[in-house]
């Protein structure tokens, strides 16, 4: 079994206490020297006995150098701790300020929403009313501005559409006009050809079949001399006026 934990307490016997101090001091100085040599560490050990006697050990006997280094380190550490404490205090103060500001803003927001008005007096309610009226005035002003800008934009678009509509109407009228003129151009050669044909038909003299008078024949089949030819009935043929005038002349 291992040794149990020994409870440390002051040795009441003065002689035993002095003997234990001598033994432990020598062992402590030996351990300090071993750590300094084995680990290449700077070690400084200071011991005062109950009678005020000084015992010390320092690596390479540079106690002053080690103590000066210790003081610098201790001072820097104290400054750092002080700065951290101050910074922490500033952060705590800033946190409290921000927390109070957030609470105030939340409270004002509730008042603007019409909540928690029981804690406000008459003057505070009047100030809240004026604040709401001012806010509504700014909101209406901004709303009117946006509406006017929207109306102006719509009017501009309307004008642009009207101009485009006029251009399209003009193009449509010109197209319809061209479509109406095209059939007239197609019918003009046909009318000219028809007029020429009718004119030629009127000018050309019609062929007439004018038969001669029959010659009298005797009983034996011979021609009777001195007999006048008898006229045969003929069909009336209508002649154009220009031919009648020519014949009469």
UniProtKB/TrEMBL annotation:
Pfam families recorded: K-box, SRF-TF
Molecular function per GO: DNA-binding transcription factor activity; protein dimerization activity; RNA polymerase II transcription regulatory region sequence-specific DNA binding
Coiled coil feature spans: none
Domain MADS-box: residue ranges: 1-61
Main location: nucleus
Region (Disordered): 174-249
Top-level taxon of the source organism: Eukaryota
Cellular compartments per GO CC: nucleus
Residues of the K-box domain: 88-178
Keywords: DNA-binding, Nucleus, Transcription, Transcription regulation
Keyword Glycoprotein found: no
Name of the protein in question: Uncharacterized protein
Organism name: Setaria viridis (Green bristlegrass)
């Amino acid at each position: 079994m291992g040794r149990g934990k020994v409870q440390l307490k002051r040795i009441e016997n003065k002689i035993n206490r002095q003997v234990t101090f001598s033994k432990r001091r020598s062992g402590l100085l030996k351990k300090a020297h071993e750590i300094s040599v084995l680990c290449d560490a700077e070690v400084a050990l200071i011991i005062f006995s109950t009678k005020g006697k000084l015992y010390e050990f320092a690596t390479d006997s540079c106690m002053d150098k080690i103590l000066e280094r210790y003081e610098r380190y201790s001072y820097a550490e104290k400054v750092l701790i002080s700065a951290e404490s101050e910074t922490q205090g500033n952060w705590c103060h800033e946190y409290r300020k921000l927390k109070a500001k957030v609470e105030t803003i939340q409270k004002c927001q509730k008042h603007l929403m019409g909540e928690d008005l029981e804690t406000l007096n008459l003057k505070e309610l009047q100030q809240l009313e004026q604040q709401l009226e001012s806010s509504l005035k700014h909101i209406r002003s901004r709303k009117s501005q946006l509406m006017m800008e929207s109306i102006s934009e719509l009017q501009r678009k309307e004008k642009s559409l009207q101009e485009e509509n006029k251009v399209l109407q003009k193009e449509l009228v010109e197209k319809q006009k061209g479509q109406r003129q095209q059939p007239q151009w197609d019918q003009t050669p046909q009318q000219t050809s028809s007029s020429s044909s009718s004119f030629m038909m009127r000018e050309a003299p019609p062929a007439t079949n004018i038969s001669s008078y029959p010659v009298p024949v005797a009983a034996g089949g011979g021609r009777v001399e001195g007999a006048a030819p008898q006229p045969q009935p003929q069909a009336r043929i209508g002649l154009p006026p220009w031919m009648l005038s020519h014949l009469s002349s």
